[in-house]
Amino acid sequence: MGTASQMMPKCYVDVFASTMDNNPPSHVRLIVRTIEQSFGKRMNEIFSSFNPVPAATASIAQVHFGVLLDGTHVAVKVQIPGCERKMRRDLTMLSKTAHVLKASGMDGGMDMPNVMDAYMRVVPAEFDFRLEAQSILFVKKSMDEEGLSHKVAVPEPIEPYISKKCFIMKRMYGLKLLDSFNDARKHGVNPAAAPATESEQSDGHPPPVPNASLCPPEVDRLHGGRGWYGVMETVHQVWGRLTLIDGCFHTDPHPGNLLLLTDGKLGILDWGQRAYLRRPQRLQLARIVIALASEDYELAARLTMASGSFDLEVPCKEAFTAFALTYFDTRPSPLANLNVFDLDNSPLANNGLKKSTPSAFLLVRVSFLIRGLMEQLRVESSMAYTWEGMARRALKSYMRGMEVITMDEIT
Q1: Contact 62, 23 (CB under 8 A)
Q2: CA distances in angstroms from 37 to 23, 32, 41, 42, 158, listed in the order given
Q3: What is the dihedral of CA 20, 24, 25, 27, to 10 degrees?
Q4: Could you tell me which residues are beta bridge partners of residue 76?
Q5: Tens of pLDDT along 51-108?
Q6: What is the pLDDT of residues 250-299, one digit of tens each?
């Protein structure tokens, strides 16, 4: 919620942005007890040093830095005691509230029960860090195969320190985009270069941006010499691969989970929250992406309608065109700039969703979070243009009966 300005009023967005990894910390004694119980060892049998001051505290986990006995510098992710019970209770209460809002016509046409159903599907897995470690191994293999490992990095879990409530990974050094955003917000500065000109944006692939002032030089060089445009192109490539080819994607690309590493790579953290797309869903999404990249908006609308992802009270081509452009691409569109709770202007208030699938909502969530990043960095580009090649590969793979790596290979 700290970047998705379409989902909340701006005053809420500003407050949530400061709490992404800056929640009240859990006492170090509770953290130490969880670590020792998880691995059956005392702290001095694992670490030569351990910083009791947390590096970050989010809703589910707290991270501390330390050094193992063999000298490896590590990050230690520890589940906050009692958080699972609280989270499940809160989600249950929100789900009940969502049903009341929909029944009373007060959910802004958003089909809020489905939104909560989507969260109920992905959040429980976040409480088992063994699943997150498996996801990281899967993603590393996927990035190697896609040829992105030279500019993308994920944490490296360390055996045997992987358990349900705690796992240890090699420390990644760099600056979180969130810290950059918050610092810029504090000083009243926009954390980005001047926007590209209209001609630079016309083909969806802007040329090098010479004045990308706050994009670190090593990051700029590694991501094509195009400043923040290059960084966002990498983000599009990663999520395109995960969504269209692998069918298992990270659902929380907010700036607290993106790290600009000292070697210029984009580090992607927190792989606990992920969603899956079955092959038929991926293939239909691939067709929509190709239609959008080809600017065949009528076809994109028909394919979006046929996908069954959304069911409107009054189905119409214009609405499904807007859905396709807003939810499966990142180009500027009128619907993308509307807050869903602005009931005076939101088209959903007058032609609401009868239903939407949980997987569709999670794709929408990712799109909105990526749009939020782009807005902060003053980048305007098309995710569909970047995804087009992968979409065609996904369809060609299906037609030829070719296999791609799946989670089954890892799990």
Answers
A1: no
A2: 24, 9, 7, 9, 17
A3: -160
A4: 64, 168
A5: 999 999 988 999 999 999 999 999 999 999 999 999 999 999 999 998 898 888 777 7
A6: 999 999 999 999 999 999 999 999 999 999 999 999 999 999 999 999 99
